[in-house]
Design a protein that fits this description.
This protein is mainly alpha-helical. The chain is 79% helix and 0% strand. It has a domain of 115 residues. InterPro entries: Tektin-like (IPR048256), Tektins (IPR000435).
Length: 452
Amino acid sequence: MKKSLENQLTMCDMLPNGPCQMDIVVDQDVRRKCSSYKICEKPEKLDDHDGLYSFVQWQEYNRDLLTRSIQGHRQSNEVEYNVKRAINTLSASTDKSMLDTTKRISNSTMNIDKWKVDMFQSLRNIRNEIDLLLLGKKKIQIAQKALGVICSISTECLERRSFRLEMDLILDPGQIELVKENKLINEIGELMCRTLCQINDQINSNKRIKYRLEENWSNKDQVFKIDTLNLGLNIQSPTIMPDVEAVKNSENACALSPSEWEASNKSLHDDAQQIFNDSVNLRNYVDEHVLNSSAKQLRDQADAVDITLARFISDTQRISQAIENDLEHVVQRLGDAENVIEDLLRVINNIEKAKMTAETRLHNRLKRPEDDNCKDSAQLSLIPEVNNLNEQLKTLNYQLQCARTGHLGLIEVRSQLEHEARIKRKTLWIDCIRCQRVRAHYPSQTVLIGHY
């Protein structure tokens, strides 16, 4: 500061020592002493004339007075010329310097405004991405709730179908599709959990870059306002004021060069653009692969389960109807067999009575006395009759045994058919009443992609 003050020109430096120095340059470094004229200096009085001046002294004094007055006028003209010349030269230099500084500030303001617009655009994009990611996160959460409902439905169907009995507890196509559906549900559930973690990480990255962009944009907005205010300042502005520490503080405060400042802004803008692109790619991945693709896979698998389950129910109903028809026929045959057995028993009973009648006759005829107990025609007829009746009883008893054996077989068949009918009815109840009804509450594809 001391050196800069020493280099400044004083008004005395602009004054020449004589007329020959009229063309001297005002900003030379050679210093000159100010010229001084003793205009008001009086001559000394004579000692031997009672304190009076001599006539010669009076004449010289007047002549010197006029001479010095002329020289004063000349010096005044020279000073006025040099002052005007200095004013014009320094004013032009100052105006040129201020104009150059104003242009530089204007260029800096335009550059700051450009970066300010770019940063604001990036900030707006990041803010929109945060809102869209939060919306995507909400969609996945809705889809997860729907997936929980699907998981409950699939688990319910698998558990209920495990209660099927005996031969109906099979790995039918519907069971295979239900197992595939359960596996698909688990895979999609894991995918949604991973995607939620990725969305949360991306939201945190967006918020961090958003904070940096807001801070950067706020700084640039402040700088833009400061430089805009500086552009409006001139020597007639009422707000200008001296600050002797401004230069020193400015030299100590400037930490980055223009190239480093430009690189810092570009780096931040590139980071924001990269995070923005990552966020857009993640959103597209969520919409296309996680939500839409998963919803389509789940709905296709649900349709496959419903189709195979309906086919198995149809086959079971057909078999159940055949069993019911066969059971009805067996019951009818059982009735017929019982009627046959009753008829056989009635016939056997009659033949036995006829046999007993014949045997009684023979027994009574054995009581005939002496020669009257002969083998007459009646006697000869009764003996074959009894033998014939015995043969008939043997045949009828064999037929009765066969009828009873067939009847027992029909009873066993009826019992087995009734058991199988009960199994089929339980299978149909599980598949129709439990599985199909609960699968009627399967979420729609609109819900699976995250919409209410």
